[in-house]
Design brief:
CATH architecture of one domain: 3-Layer(bba) Sandwich
CATH class of one domain: Alpha Beta
Radius of gyration: 21 Å
CATH superfamily of one domain: FAD/NAD(P)-binding domain
Number of strands: 20
Structural class: alpha+beta
Largest sheet: 9 strands, mixed
Helix content: 25-40%
Number of helices: 11
């Protein structure tokens, strides 16, 4: 059976699903394809991974009806506390504190388990009349013609005006399109897991900068927190090899007495970190979004939000093309200009922050601690960074406003 749609999207991860829903919301028809069976993401098991959704991205989920599906499973981030110190030792008293109430707004973001977010997105996509969701399938080829792009999968051929690659940082689509990437490895890996703790977190997100990388404690529901532990590759490999009691003890040492007794309550994952940027986002009728276009350091928790803004921008570009009766391919250049600039600015910022804070050079260490203390006293600067954390910078797509 062949399909025809305005847009074909390869990759039904968090960004691909959101892009499909956003474009469908703008009355475009979407063919969404993925190599994995959606049922694999709908079971009740929790793999320990969660995401910070910026306030602006959450607005889009409200527009798309996804937020309502997550009621009772979302933890608002009401405060952010940034500090600098040593593992299990000295923590500088010069800290930087962001309070959303002082900024005059609601939460700066929301924490949600990845499995629950994906489940809500899949259910919404299944119920959309404008989305044809085909999975699991193996896409074998795509080809551009004068006014269409054809996609071959499992012996079938379908057609769309444009093809959107949302298939991750190792994107098959990107490689097939001949789009190159720049990749700068960090001498770091990150451990991601979830812990349960005795004391409440009160919606506070902690970012403790340590010599080998930041240790982030991000609030989840039910006295739990998501951990992003960045360290040297050797230290991460050693930690991942620890038996559960020893790993729990190391986590407790990093927590100190912050939340009382703590312990892992989910599997742990480890990832090598790098800064990766596609040299271009658009080539002919092919466009990249999400990790297929960019992958940054998790220091600011903005990687997924960059992809969600890509999805929202794509929906606006699609809507404008339809309103003006134009071939969608002609509008993809707007997506390139809009998102490439914003993403490169954010990628460069996270790169600088990581290099500034992930070292133990005495003069730099003292200067950054003093800088945190000074920044805590400057309210206009705090307001600026709160807006950055909430994803309210730059020209926002309509679904994020």
């Amino acid at each position: 059976m062949s399909h025809s749609a305005d847009i074909a999207i390869i990759g039904a991860g968090l960004v691909g699903l959101t892009a499909a829903l956003a474009c469908a919301h703008k009355n475009s028809t979407v063919l969404l394809m993925d190599a994995q069976d959606p049922a694999d993401h709908l079971d009740r098991s929790f793999d320990g991974r969660a995401s910070a959704i910026a306030a602006s991205s959450w607005r889009m989920f409200e527009h798309l009806g996804v937020a309502k599906r997550l009621e009772g499973h979302v933890q608002p981030i009401t405060d952010i506390l940034i500090s600098d110190g040593e593992v299990g030792g000295y923590i500088s008293p010069l800290t930087l504190h962001f309070d959303s109430e002082e900024a005059g707004g609601g939460p700066m973001g929301y924490m949600v388990e990845n499995r629950l977010l994906r489940k809500a997105l899949i259910e919404a996509a299944r119920q959309s009349e404008n989305i044809t969701f085909v999975a699991p399938v193996t896409v074998s080829a795509f080809e551009e013609t004068t006014n269409k792009v054809s996609v071959e999968f499992d012996g079938e051929r379908s057609f769309a005006s444009v093809l959107i690659a949302a298939d991750g940082r190792n994107s098959w689509c990107r490689k097939q399109a001949g789009i190159t990437v720049s990749n700068t490895p960090y001498k770091q890996k990150a451990i991601v897991t979830t812990v349960a703790h005795e004391k409440p977190h009160d919606g506070v997100a902690h970012e403790l900068f340590l010599p080998n990388g930041p240790f982030a404690i991000l609030p989840l529901t039910e006295h739990r927190s998501s951990i992003v532990w960045t360290d040297s590759p050797a230290a991460v490999d050693a930690a991942m090899a620890l038996p559960e009691p020893a790993f729990a003890a190391e986590l407790a040492r990093r927590f100190g007495d912050l939340y009382g007794e703590v312990g892992p309550c989910a599997p742990r994952w480890a990832y090598p970190l790098s800064l990766q940027m596609a040299e271009q986002y658009v080539k002919g009728r092919i466009a990249l979004i999400g990790d297929a276009a960019h992958a940054i350091h998790p220091i600011a928790g903005q990687g997924l939000n960059m992809g969600l803004r890509d999805a929202a921008a794509l929906a606006d570009v699609v809507e404008e093309a339809r309103a003006n009766g134009l071939d969608l391919m002609l509008q993809l250049s707007d997506l390139e200009i809009w998102r490439n600039f914003d993403n490169r600015i954010l990628a460069a910022s996270t790169d600088v922050f990581n290099r500034l804070f992930s070292n133990n050079i005495a003069p730099i260490k003292h200067a950054r601690r003093l800088g945190l203390g000074l920044m805590d006293k400057i309210k206009p600067a705090q307001s600026f960074f709160i807006r950055e954390a909430a994803g309210l910078h730059g020209e926002l797509p309509s679904l994020l406003r």
